[in-house]
Every structure is written in structure tokens, then in C-alpha cells.
Amino acid sequence: MARTVVDEQLFAGLRQGDRAALARAITLIESDRDADAPVAKTLIERCLPHSGDALRLGITGIPGVGKSTLIDALGLQFIAAGRRVAVLAIDPSSARTGGSILGDKTRMERLAQADAAFIRPTPTGGTLGGVARRTQETIVLCEAAGYDRILIETVGVGQSELDVDRMTDLNLLLMIAGAGDELQGIKRGIMEAADLIAFTKADGDAEARAARARTDLKNALTLLPPRDSGRHPDVLLTSAITGAGIADLHDRIDALHQEDVASGRTLRRRHEHNLFWMHRSLEESLVTALRNSARVNAALADLERAVQGGTKSPFQAAAELLDLFRKGGAPLL
Amino acid sequence: MARTVVDEQLFAGLRQGDRAALARAITLIESDRDADAPVAKTLIERCLPHSGDALRLGITGIPGVGKSTLIDALGLQFIAAGRRVAVLAIDPSSARTGGSILGDKTRMERLAQADAAFIRPTPTGGTLGGVARRTQETIVLCEAAGYDRILIETVGVGQSELDVDRMTDLNLLLMIAGAGDELQGIKRGIMEAADLIAFTKADGDAEARAARARTDLKNALTLLPPRDSGRHPDVLLTSAITGAGIADLHDRIDALHQEDVASGRTLRRRHEHNLFWMHRSLEESLVTALRNSARVNAALADLERAVQGGTKSPFQAAAELLDLFRKGGAPLL
Asked: Measured between CA atoms, how close is B116 to chain A, in angstroms?
């Protein structure tokens, strides 16, 4: 009962936009403690009806591209337009390394001081498969707390940016103008998941180079298939130092979002994504349950030896393990 | 009991190298009938101790590269060297289309008439996940029937060639010399899984072009990481029409195989592959069992609707489905 009271207090504080309550709620859903699970579940259920009105914007780019600095500048634009901004980070590697890509918020110092902004560092620890769940439940909490611009930062390397495309309404890809090799090091899939591309650090000596890179990239993009929206991503030039292009970037993002809400694309994507995550989560949980099954683990070493040595078919061994798992029943699972 | 007698006859015939018995045995392991499953299982168990001495060679290339014609010529070389040759085909798409990439054997007409050769068309029907199992169990049957050169043909598009690298000792990639675009259309992963590359149709006017393409490709290959063997693949020129390069190709394959057997690479790969297939098969079976669960299916539509509409968290819905599956017990699974 005490738990339920705390839950109600937490929910009320969160709905009033209390940042401490929001932070505590996020810590709760990130918790691996069994006792926290039912409280977290109830909280999410309470928040779900109050979520869904925000723009969920993915911001991807390789380390060093200037994500934090651009988010700082873009976030202030959103706030100036009357929005409340939450910044989250997805870093699947944090489950392994315990690292935080947001660091100490020093590169978002203006946004960190704004009343209408909430910055949440990457959670540390937890399982790899839990990153997607935690991120999406954090989005729900932030939206229920009144944030209507959710910026989800990812490192643009590996699987995370493809997963983030299944959590967001729009994706912004950040790039630096190099020596004509803009397409290098960026996987094709990442480019194809972008709704908008911005060159960062287009200032001083680098400005002319960025302008050329923009032209080259726009030409190259016509060779790729269009996004599910039917659009090829536009390419903008920005500088977080001079502020050039930031207001334009803000306006373009808002215009794309309005277009997608009006056309139904936003809702359609969210429906598809919700189903995707349900099935993905189910399959992952199942494999985890299997790996934790005492009966399976008791038989595994012998079967692995037989399979490795070629005296038992791998498919036969798999059938035997599945049998053990299914016969195991709840107590042993 | 009658089944056991048939099984013994089949096993004896297969061990004597009777091709009709081998064909019948393969049909048995390809069968989806429940009654055939225990017979097939026993047969594989009996054959396993008599398998493993063959060279398992993957042969990959895009449609039109001349796989069948080259296999015809290469297979005759193996037979001339005293080997018995089995030709299998992997075509994951056949599970969907019912198609056969080997067609009517007309492009392997010399091999099809040789006593020491056995050609098995792609199985039709069956589940997609079953393609790997059927192929590998067919390899075991062929080896137990005395075939010591197993050629496994794949279309080099999609996932199949990466799976075939987990079934074979060596992989031969076939390419045609085009207009300098040899690297186009071939995925990087396929190139990296090759132990040996052969240009086909290097005859007549195309011979000089193929020679240039060979030089270009050899240079390009030095930029890729070497194979797990530590080798970069060599590139050969062949013509199934003039016969040029076929004997050399045969000798190179045999030399690589002897090297790998001596170094332990062949055995190490097979151990790793067997474990891989056990785990892959287990996870696939588990997901299949879930999808076939009556309790899960009864709840699925309602949960999907709630998740799609955003009134229930996809992760919460997954947890409920997993709970239903695990509570379901054997009768409902």
C-alpha cells in the first residue's frame, strides 16, 4: 500500500512538470530491482494516455560531429517557440561499458540551465535488450510531464540508429564537411533513415567547403530510394557558433512534422513501431528465459560437446533442448 | 516395427552407395510429415559416424554467372581424380516459390550421366528455417553414401551465401568480367567469405577483359581484411567451354583443403558451425512454438490492437504474452 501512495505522489508530481519527480520516475523504470517492476508498470500505464502529442526527433551523427552543441542551439529555438524540450540519449554500448555519451552536460550548458528543458544522461548498466524499452518508456514519462519536443541523441555507428528510426517521428542526420568523402563512414541504411541532413560547423574557412559538400550530397541522395514519406532528405548548413542555419533547421523540422501529422504518416509509423517492439521484445524475452532455464543449462554442456564433436546433429540437439525447456514448466524456467 | 525394417534397408542401401536409396533418404529428411520425423532422426544418427571425411565446397555466384556449367566441368575433374561428387543446391527462396535453381539438370549433362556423381535438385516447399537443416542433413547422408566431394551451389544474393559459409569448408566465388564493375552487385560480405574466386567465361573476345579484371580484383582484394585462414583469396580465370583453367581450379581447391585439414582449420570451422546451428535452430524453434501457442494466439489480436493504438506499452504486452506462453504448458503449446 505504501508503494501505491508513493506512486500516486510521483505521478502527480510528474504530471505537474516537476523535474525531480520526472527524474525519479525514470530511475524507477530503469531499475532492475524486482520490487520496482510493478510500480514502474503502473506508472507507465497511468502515463500512456497523457503521452503521444510530442514530436519525437532522432538526432544521429558520428562522434565529433557536434551533436551536443547543435542540440543546445536547436533546443533553445524550440523553447523560444514556446516548446518544452527533453533530451535523451541512446547508447546501446552503455549497457556494456557503463559510459554516458552525454557526459557532464557541459556541451549543452545553455539548455541545461533553461527551465523548459530536461536533459537525461544515458542510463548506465542494465541489459542490452533493455535499452529500447527504457528509452521508449522514458519518452512516455517525458511526454506525460508536458515535454512536447523529445530529442533522442544516438551515436551513428552500429545498430542503434536503425532502432532509433523505429522510435521516432523524424530523424535528423548530422555530418561534417570533409574532403569530399561525406559518404564515407556513414552506412547506407543511416542515410536512408534520415528525413533531414544538416552539416555542422559550417563557419569560417569551412563554410565554402560545406556548401560544396551540400551540393555533392544532394546530388548523391537522388540516387538513393526516397524515404517512406516519399521525400528525399533536404540538406542544410548550420553553425552552432555563429548560429547560422539553426532557425531555418528548426522551421524545417516543424514543417515536416506538421506535414506528417496532417498526412497520417506520424500515426502510421507509431502504430507500426509499437507492433515491431512488441514482437521484438517478446522474442528477446523468450530467448532470455531459455538461457535462464535450469533444465536447459543442465543439459547444455553435454549436448554442446556432442554437437561440436559431430556425434550429434545440431538440429537434433536443438530439438532436445527445446523439449527440456517446454517440459520444464514454471518452477524451473 | 515395419518402419524400423524399412529404415535398416534404407541405411544399408545408402551405405552401399545406392543412389536410389540416397534419394529416398533425402526425401525422408525433407518430409514435413510427423510420422517420418523419428525415422529421419534415427537415419541421421546412424549416418553421422560415417560422415565428415568429405570436402564441403560452397559455390556462389549471381544468376547467369555460369554456376551449373562450371560445376559440370569441375565435377568431372574431381571424378577423374577418383572422387565421388554430390551436387546440392541451397535456395532459401524455394521455400516460398517452390522453385528449383538446378532446373532440369540440363546444364550439368555430363555430370548427370556420370556414375560417380549425384545431383539433387533444390527441395521445394517446407519452411524457410528448415533449409539449413535439410541441406546439412543431406550433406551427412551423401557423405555416409560415400560421396567425398560435396558441392553446394547457392545464388549469391541475400542471406544464403552467409549461411552457406557456416556449412562449408571452402567457398568458391564465381564472377564474370564486366566493364570494370566487378565489385558492383557483390556484397562485401560475400567477397570476404570467399577462399577462392574464379572468373567464368574467360574465352574468345572476353579472355583479355577477364585477365584485366583479374588484376584489378587482386589489387582490390588486398584492401579487404584477410579470411579467417589468414589468406587473401586467389583469383583464377576459367572457361567451361574451352576447359581452360578448370584443372588448375581443381588443383587449387584440393591444395587449399589439404592445407586446412593439416592446420586444423577445417575441424575448427566445423566445430564452430555445429554450435552456431544448434543455437540458431533452438531460437527459431522457440519462436515457432510461440507463434503456434493457442493461448498466445487467443490473446494476440486484442493486445496488438491495444499496442497499436498506444493504450498499452509494447513491452508490457510482450511480457503478458510471454507469461501466457509459459503458463500454457505442453497441451496448449
From this structure: 26
Find where cell 546501446 sits: A92
Residue of B nearest to A268 (CA): B308
Q: Which residue has the cell 542494465?
A: A126
Residues B303, A45: C-beta atoms closer than 8 Å: no
CA distance A172 to chain B (A): 24
Q: What is the pTM of this model?
A: 0.68
Q: CA nearest A43: which of A16, A18, A8, A13?
A: A8
3-state secondary structure of B55: strand
Backbone angles phi, psi at B236, to 5 degrees: -115, 160
Write down the H helix ranges in chain B. 2-15, 19-30, 36-47, 67-80, 94-97, 109-113, 130-144, 160-164, 188-192, 206-221, 246-263, 265-291, 294-308, 314-332
* Phi then psi dihedrals of residue B199, to 5 deg: -80, 130
pLDDT at B184: 47
Q: Is the pLDDT of residue A210 over 60?
A: yes
Residues across chain B: 333
User: Which triple of cell numbers denotes residue B249?
Assistant: 581450379
Give the model confidence (pLDDT) of B218-254 as tens digits.
887 777 667 888 898 999 999 988 999 999 999 999 9
Task: From B189, B166, B149, select the one nearest B57 (Cα to Cα).
Answer: B149
Using CB atoms within 10 A of its CB, is residue A102 exposed (0-12), middle (13-18) or buried (19+)? buried
Asked if B133's CB is within 8 angstroms of A308's CB, the reply is no
pLDDT at position A122 is 66
Nearest CA in chain A to B141: A313
Which of A 47-76 lie inside 8 A of B, CB atoms?
48-49, 51-52
Interface test with B, best of A188, A303, A315 (most B CBs within 10 A): A315
Tell me how far apart the alpha carbons of residues A118 and A114 are, in angstroms, rounded to a whole number.
8
B-chain residues near A312 (CB < 8 A): 45, 48
Pick from A72-81, A82-91, A249-258: least confident:
A82-91
Residue B255 and residue B253: Cα distance in Å, rounded? 5
